Amino acid sequence: MKTPCIRITRFGPPDVLQAGEVDIAAPAAGEALVRQTGIGVNFVDVYHRIGQLHGDGPEPPFIPGVQANGVVESLGPGVSHLAVGDRVAYANIGIGSYVGHRVLPAHRLVKIPDALDDAIVAASYLRGLTCHYLLKRLYRVQPGDTVLIHAAAGGVGQLMVQWAKRLGATVIGTVSTEAKADFVKSLGCDHPIVYSTVNFVDEVMRITDGQGVPVVYDSVGADTFMGSLDCLQPMGIAINYGTASGQVPPFPLQRLHSKSLSVCRPTLRTWIAKQSDLEIASSEVFDLLADGSLRIDIAARLPLHEAAQAHRLIESRTMSGAVLLEP
Predict the structure, then answer these.
(1) Within 10 Å of residue 200's Cβ, how many Cβ atoms?
(2) I need a surface site. Which of 73, 143, 187, 245 has the fewest CB within 10 A?
(3) Residues 50-70: pLDDT tens digits?
């Protein structure tokens, strides 16, 4: 069968995202055919599109996208934990989610609870998994911690603000406008900082009485990371999990010496590689979404063939919330 898709045949601006069709085979043993209902647009898709070095980034031609959800339409031999009609989600099973239908390894598909609708899952699943490992595993946020979250109004940032508050942290969040400051404050951010009007390092040190924070969650990269280091208290860790403004430039390791600082550049893929880790994280994310502990703003829902516009929207960094594609 054929299904609609978005292809990239060369690196470049959003216009390189071209609509087309791709052939889909019947699922083989251990596989499931999924009719996709919601596709999350994530910044990693931009990195792949522009060819920014990102581990094992793909070479054109390829179909982008790392996350989606949908309905199981058929199953290959040997799949017993899923049934036709099940609603499922997946993240980081290789690239290729900008399609209408997709054949996937069944064991990496996670059932969606009835309480959650497709749009919320498409907006939050990968972002929620990211928050889980950042807040509960890589640095385990404890009650009484003060944390700094850059891009606090973004798709990951707004979930992270809410989850960090739930864990008992005081949250400092950087945003670009006063409107975004009001938005993240409504999510529980204790100290929004509008970085376009004040120096965020000075503000963080003022808020913490000169002590700094034990952890900075930095998804911005080049524009913020050196300042993030300056915000840390002794033995603190700066976690660069995204590079929206470009990659962090090289710097001398000795820069970390005086306060015994640590730096980490993680990726979700390694934190959910074990099936048990994926299942635990997914369960926690879904539970928090279902009981209202986490909410996410959906900024735009666009048809699949408007993928280029979706990329323009997230690259503008002017919106709060998630952008979705719907086949």
Answers:
(1) 21
(2) 143
(3) 998 655 789 999 999 999 999
Q: Positive or negative, the Cα torsion across 164, 169, 174, 180?
A: positive
* Cα(61)–Cα(8) distance, integer angstroms: 5
Strands 146-149 and 87-91: unpaired
The answer to whether 279 touches 304, Cβ cutoff 8 Å, is no
Query: Whole-angstrom Cα distance, residue 280 to residue 243?
Result: 27
Which amino acid is it at 48?
H
- Distance spanning both ends of the chain, measured CA to CA: 15
Q: Over the stretch 184-240, which tens digit does the pLDDT of each residue have?
A: 999 999 999 999 999 999 999 999 999 999 999 999 999 999 999 999 999 999 999
Q: How many residues does the chain have?
A: 327
pLDDT at 290: 96
Rounded Cα distance, 66 and 88, in Å: 14
Provide the residue type at 173 as one letter.
G
Distance CA 28, CA 31 (A): 5
So what's the architecture of 143-265 in CATH?
3-Layer(aba) Sandwich (3.40)
Distance CA 277, CA 58 (A): 25
Q: Is the pLDDT of residue 178 over 80?
A: yes
Write the DSSP string, 35-51. EEEEEEE-HHHHHHHHT
Give bridge partners of residue 67 from the DSSP assignment. 91
Can you give the residue ranges of every domain in the chain?
2-125+273-326, 143-265
Tell me 290's DSSP state: H
pTM above 0.90, yes or no: yes
Per-residue pLDDT tens digits for 29-48: 999 999 999 999 998 999 99
